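Internal ticket #5521
Category: modeling
Description: The requester needs a full-assembly model to guide mutagenesis choices. All entity lines are attached below as received. Residue total reported by intake: 591.
Assigned to: D.W.
Attached entities:
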Amino acid sequence: MIFTNKVSKIGIYTAIVLLALVFSAPFLYTLYTSFIPIKYVNTFTGLENWTFDNYKTFFTSDAYSVSKWLFNTVVMTGIILIGNLIINPMAAYALAKLDFFGKKLIFWIVVITMMIPYHMILIPVYVNMAKLGWLNSFAALTIPFLYQAIYIFMLRQFFIGVPNELIEAARMDGLTKMGAFWRIVYPLSKPVLITVAILTFAGTWNSYLIPSTLANTPEKYVLVVGLNSVKDMFFENTPLVMAGVVLTTLPILAFFFVFQKQYMEGISNSGLKG
Amino acid sequence: MLKADTYAGRNKIKKQTTRPRFSLRSLADSDQFVGWVFSLPFLILWGWWFFYPFMESFVRSFQEVNFMDLSQGKFIGLQNYVLILHDPQFYQALGNSLKIVLIAVPVQTVLGLVMAILVNQKIKGKGLFRTIFFIPYITSQIALTTVAMMLFKENTFVTKFFTAFGMENVTWFASTKYALLFVTLLFIFQQVGFTMIVYLSALQEISKELYEASVIDGANAWQKFRFITVPMLKPVTFFVVSVGTILGFQIFDQIAAISRYGALGSPAGATSTVITYFYQHGIRYMNLGYGSAAVVIFFFIIMLITVLQKKLLDDKE
């Protein structure tokens, strides 16, 4: 019995370590390559040959403006984040706790919208943006994405669980219905709001299809789109491209390490309830 | 409710008694009013940037319309649909989409479950392993694909390593033979961490008593897995499979990245999918009617598959 236990332990460790090697190798390769001169690509070289030149090039060359792309990404993500943290909870609360004409219809709108892939409407969205002269503007990158049906659904589930007594108590203290939401329920919903914020942040920061379609001039690129263009332009310069990968990925990884626990909980909740 | 109102009004008894029943203030504090005010920002954005374009997609799919003269859209009935259904490239794209889904979904579901079981064991550093497996999921797909493109070039050690398994020493993403496999592997690599996390939390929900009871009944490890774990995980499996299928059909970033300056789906359509097909025609070639018809077909394919999966996985009881 002890013997078989040991054998299975060894088996488990072997499997997990092998998998971990496969999963971390690309990241280690990227990090390593981003610090070496181009002549050492795909060979091993000691620390004495390492250099920051690849990173420096990014901030000094005129061929690309990483700082601008970073700025674009931050503004886009910031606006979308704020929108999603206001519009989604409001609609979700109305659907969960208020009784009004058309509520059922709005709920079905949310459910159906959730299930339709965004590609379905990309062509008309693109055309309408062009008609409004919005292409290559922050308006195009943010306004249609200030809400997310799936998060309205998620938040509604959460608000349903908020006890009615709490809201009634707030009313007794003289708060209006709107006040009861903003002053009592909203602050109490911090955990679920953090989940929505994290999922929105990661999804927006990493998005490529929509920003590359709606903002396609180099000054309006977001980081991911910019990285793709650097990769295409300087494909043979592996260390430079790898430095670009590190620069693009670092903020989201840092963010992930801070919010790892909430992020994973958010994901697994979407699995269990969805 | 009534009690609450009287309490709220206690300080302003004078005002309350003289106030008419339907004042502006009581209207502003009614469920009807607040409900609509709270739903309105969503409804406006949804109507403007979802419902209207959604309807437009259907209308345009029956038109011949070019980006240059939008008002000149000409109704041509089902012609766009007929053209698409006679286009061999469409079937190539559809076939590729199906291949991606049929390979990626089973692999990432099984691998995700295995990984969830592994990181659920009592072992050292399982938190670290969890993080390592999950990181590709939160990394930008463009970034991951870029790295993989560097690794799978001709003559790199990775490509040479795979020659031991009978693969040729070529640049994978530029080879009509391997490009689709390359994209599929990248998708699995990204998605499997998500599957693992979803399975992991489901595994932790299964009560220990079930396993203890089965041990008393003399069940071995395999029987525990087969007759407790698998059935208990069924709803989550359905979730994982349907999410995987829908996302598999929507793969775009990886393909856009490997196509570089070529048409989407390079090399030679080897990685074209229903998504890149519609994007190439509708947005790159500005053939709005044709692209919209392709999108409508894609929409019905997704719906059909969702319904089929629900039938298959739900009615097996």
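Resolution: model delivered.
Comment from assignee: The mean pLDDT of chain B is 88.
Ticket closed.
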